[in-house]
Amino acid sequence: MLQINDKGQLQDPRVRPAISPAIERGRLERVQGIVVHQTGGPTAEATLRAYRRGGNGAHFLIEKDGTLYQTASVHKRTQHVGKLRARCLAENRCAPGEAEALREMTPTERNRHEMRKPVPERYPSNGDSVGIELVGQALPLDEPDPDRRTYERVTEAQNATLKWLVQGLLLHFGVPRSEVFRHPVVSQKNVTEAETAQW
Ligand SMILES: [Zn+2]
Fold first, then answer.
1. How far is the CA of 193 from the centre of ligand 1 (A)?
2. Which member of 15, 34, 47, 92 lies 3.0 to 4.6 Å from 10 by CB, making a disulfide possible if both were Cys?
3. 97 alpha carbon to ligand 1 midpoint, in Å?
4. Is the model's pTM score more than 0.70?
5. Is the dihedral of CA 32, 8, 164, 49 positive or negative?
6. d(Cα 150, Cα 163) in Å, to the nearest integer?
7. Whole-angstrom distance, CA of residue 149 vs CA of residue 141
8. pLDDT per residue over 172-183, tens digit each?
9. Which domains does the chain have, with CATH numbers?
10. What is the CA radius of gyration of the chain?
């Protein structure tokens, strides 16, 4: 089992403490899922530097060599998910008439509609999930359309660390494996983000 102290910090020699209070956003009451991301940056240091300034961020960061940093307390929310896609559309289980209504909605309206549902009827959100970032760029950098870039392959060392961390978090929080998602599944994002991540 993972050892997590009362401040929400993992107590394990594999985890390097690098918490940035600037990305923490109030209490995370209950973890119901995990969202896996890629940073778009070249190194962990670049992301750690950005996190110290604030803004969006996740709870963990995995360097290409598998080094694991904890960047936020698992008792605090961070902004890593964005507007939710409709889970019932992806899983073919919308209520009668709901699919048609969802297709007419703007992303903001769809997010509001989804957030009225409990997990697992909807995807996990910022308010109930842990975010894990894997260092990796979307290439080529000179492609102006972000959706036409392709994220770098996740390394074997990253996937090994990711497996260990996901397994530990699922056990600790009592979350089923079905509630771990790549970011583009949950939100409108470049579809190659974390595509090669394995857990
Ligand atoms: Zn992401």
1. 7
2. 15
3. 31
4. yes
5. positive
6. 23
7. 8
8. 999 999 999 999
9. 1-82+123-199 (3.40.80.10), 85-122 (no CATH)
10. 17
